[in-house]
Amino acid sequence: MAEPEERWRADAEARLAFLAKPPGALGTLEEWCVTLCVAQKTLRPTVSAAALVFVADHGCKKADSALSPYPASATQAIFRSLAAGVSCAAVLARSVGATLHVVDVGVDGDVSDVRDRDGIEVHHCKVLPGTSDIRREPAMSEEALDAALRVGQQQVQVVSCGATVICIGEVGIGNTTSAACLLAALTGSDAETVCGRGTGLDDAGLAHKIEVVRAALAHHNLPLTRNALRCVGGLEIAAMVGAYIAMSSTRAVAVVDGFISGVAALCAIQMQPSCRSRMIFATSLAEEPSRPGGGAILAEALGAKPALDMGLRLGECSAAVLALPLLSAAAALPTAATLDEAMALSPNAPAPAAAADDDDDDGFECLGSVTAEERAAEARLAA
Predict the structure, then answer these.
(1) Where would one find the signal peptide in this protein (predicted)?
(2) Catalytic status, residue 287
(3) Strand 49-56 to strand 253-256: parallel, antiparallel, or no bridges (unpaired)?
(4) What stretch of H or E contains 88?
(5) Are 174 and 68 in contact (CB under 8 A)?
(6) Where is 146: in which H helix or E strand?
(7) Number of neighbours of residue 283 by Cβ within 10 angstroms
């Protein structure tokens, strides 16, 4: 971590340590507050949120309908419902005030007629009309991978101009198969451990999915993260990887949305470790609750402590946006009173040894003096 980030982390932790509460009593909220302070380089962070949903089709699903109970055409239908503001994820994003961005990075079909509406922004960035069948050939070429990575990076660069928090999510029928392949390749795990039921596979469907993942892993040589992403990944997964990597050059943080978004986060960290410090994990990383093995492996690899455990597994940024009110609460923590300030409210409190200089703008809406660490941080911010 760069030295300036270390200073901001120390300043934020010092501020929270002096609040009127036992150390660490607000748990994950304190960790999130520090993450926001470090990213924004301030002890008064704000939450202005956007949700980026990358959408693409998968060749393995087009070649094998048994990989999901939903048809491949559902990808385009979900893209259109997100853009129309009527999908569950769109409703949730609107309910918490997050601007929704829907990005076609690889939908199989013409969706060029879909336009912005009602505060939802649609981005037509199609690289290919879906990937190839990963059991028989690489999912995409080097050129297509680079293009998908750029889509994610460019979206973050644009969106971060107005957002301090960016939720990262996806849509792609069949993409849990690609994500399971990537997780197995990156962690050395067995296909049976990392595979879940996706959108509702029965026992026979799950067994078939496990065999497909094993076949794809056996077909490709996957020693490097980038090659694994090219051979068994998805265009929307690659775009999410690009988005996470781009976070390091902004003052925004990323909210990881679940299993597939989490696998993309792991790819990004292995390609650029510095982006890990800009990630917040909204929800359990298990693909589905009855088979938590893949999620546990992923959480351990990421060093993640997800906040919500509500059985959320829709994707589409739905879990990430639900974490936004908690992030807003975390951002407000530095404005709380310190223990000394709280004690001063008691009628029996001793008079302070010296009054604070009223001309000093401490930058906080609390009652008394601030620490030397806070003043140093505020001075750096002003400079």
Answers:
(1) none
(2) no
(3) unpaired
(4) helix 88-95
(5) yes
(6) helix 142-159
(7) 26
- Locate tokens 């120390």: which residue? 10
DSSP 179-194: HHHHHHHHHT--HHHH
Confidence band (pLDDT; 50, 70, 90) for 227? Answer: very high
For residue 65, give the DSSP letter.
G
Task: Please give the Cα distance from 295 to 189 (Å, whole number).
Answer: 12
Rounded to an integer, what distance in angstroms lies between the CA atom of residue 36 and that of residue 333?
11
Please identify which residue in the block is written with the tokens 């309908």: 65
Catalytic-labelled residue, pool 316, 341, 373, 378: 316
Closest CA to 170 of 191, 151, 192: 151
Closest by CA position to 155, among listed 57, 238, 279: 238
Please report the sign of the dihedral spanned by the C-alpha atoms of residue 100, residue 103, residue 109, residue 112. positive
pLDDT of residue 119: 86
Tokens standing for residue 109: 């079909």
pLDDT digits (tens, 9 = 90+) for 156-166: 999 999 999 99
Strands (E), the chain: 49-56, 99-106, 121-124, 165-171, 253-256, 279-281
Task: Give 267-281 pLDDT, tens digit per residue.
Answer: 999 999 999 999 999
Q: Residue 59 pLDDT more than 80? A: yes
pLDDT of residue 381: 43
Q: How far is CA 234 from the centre of its chain?
A: 17
